[in-house]
């Protein structure tokens, strides 16, 4: 039976490997074959096929639930109920509308994620009628960074959109309303200034955690402690069970109630109740299933193996929603538990509590490293020490105080406030300690590693975690080295590696020679979203860049320079140049771009052109890069007038590749400028369905009339090629995954 359960889980997990989904007839044939194997007692093969068929069927259902292309960017009146907890972000509120319907009987996705700028704050459980402009569930696609399309699909969200107007139809009701009330109470009372973190610990809502706090938790490897995790569920469940046992042993438990059955029922009810309060995410599901199974087996007087409980929890979680395998949290949650089983299995004797805690942190640091590398996540160098300090404090003090304080506050607020204030104070002290550790050792973003090095690193981690004295254990560290420090191929002499990052409505272009790196613009910043921190910086480090020689900010508009400060803090550049120094943050210490400045790196030529007396878009510093006779022209947001000046100046504008001025706006890409440049291809960096209408149809028509091929980041994702080899740019979306919206056919 264990082999069959494991095979079913592996079949479901194999879903991630598909580039495209097989047709429904093929899927039906697979299911029939799997059932046949089960009936002929080939249980493992049949279970694997059944798991794969079930996962593929769910994937088809999820894709069918996406917004129809005909409804893209249409404003529709829709009705539905607010699902989950709305999150307030700057001047906007973000929420999910479930069960959406339209009076026109249009087919809408079951769940739609909406944002409402400047509108009222809907409450969980309310029913609303909204005028919303709907869009498909697309996202940015870069070598590193969150795969938003996969995340939305796993959450069952088939569309996104922005609300234009709305009216409430019915008051809040249901469990979500209760959760929202607790969250608002904690955030309003704000004990010791930590209301956002307390809400995360009590109701599993992380929207009140600031970007700076998230970065701190990432740097110290303590993210898993700051929202409700399986560890917190297990802790609360164990406390309830231990309380009943203590009362029974002291003769204080009612004799007419069997204490063993009562303890099991109360513990399971507490775990499930806390899980529902937490929103029942994957780590919580795993913990609830394991607690329930362990207690049920104990009631049956059977010896339970922890590995069996983990396996059954894995199967149940995957069977309930096979698409959770697209979520990072799924892999980290189950990976952590399996690593602990591997690390502590087969050891003789018992370790003292402090040694057990230390070994667990060592296991997490070493064992999860290959998984974090595979997921493109940074490694926390201070994580073992930070967790060794934070785990006991969270488990034994902060979480119990937060829960008890909240429970007492529901009865009468003055009863619970002392506990909440004490929990908030302890959190504040913990943040102070974590800040010191983060300053000593921030998170390290390793270079993107080839698949073979990741497999070696995984094998090495398993060997390193074996008990002392096991043969080949010392080989583990050596096997991990290629994954941690993979070979980084650098461009050859006279060549430049170009990457146009997918930053949405903005621009960020990396130019890398053999020994140098230049960043042209740093992506947008809007509200709390900073693409410099979330997209540009991780991808710079992920390509092996540890020194940024020049950051050239074409001008100071937020879509070009908004992410500059985050990049400069994470990877201090040797020089910062710009066409609008006066409008940039003083911390950047930028200098004026020079008109006609030239320099050479590793046989690659760079030239800048700038008009000192211009302002705004026309002040954009233009950069030309030339490698072995092949040229790239980066133009910022120059307009048609500035284009005409450049043409009239007689500057050598001819280039094989042109970054479209102003994202393809109608104000630029004049016919005379295109004729002067004569590009093979035009690179358009913009956000999908942006409100500016970029690129303008007339601009695209001008390029097509001249045989210039467009390469659009909104359609293709990040674009990469080597200048000097006369290649064609390749988009990140061309690496096919079944859940991604495919790139258009050229």
Automatic annotation (TrEMBL):
Residues 505-688 form the Metallo-beta-lactamase domain. The lineage of its organism: Bacteria, Pseudomonadati, Pseudomonadota, Gammaproteobacteria, Pseudomonadales. Its main location: membrane. Keywords: Cell membrane, Membrane, Transmembrane, Transmembrane helix. The chain crosses the membrane at residues 29-57, 223-247, 259-277, 306-324, 360-381, 393-412, 419-440, 452-472. It is found in: Cell membrane. It comes from Pseudomonas benzopyrenica. Gene3D superfamilies: Ribonuclease Z/Hydroxyacylglutathione hydrolase-like (3.60.15.10). This is DNA internalization-related competence protein ComEC/Rec2. It is a multi-pass membrane protein. It holds the Pfam family DUF4131.
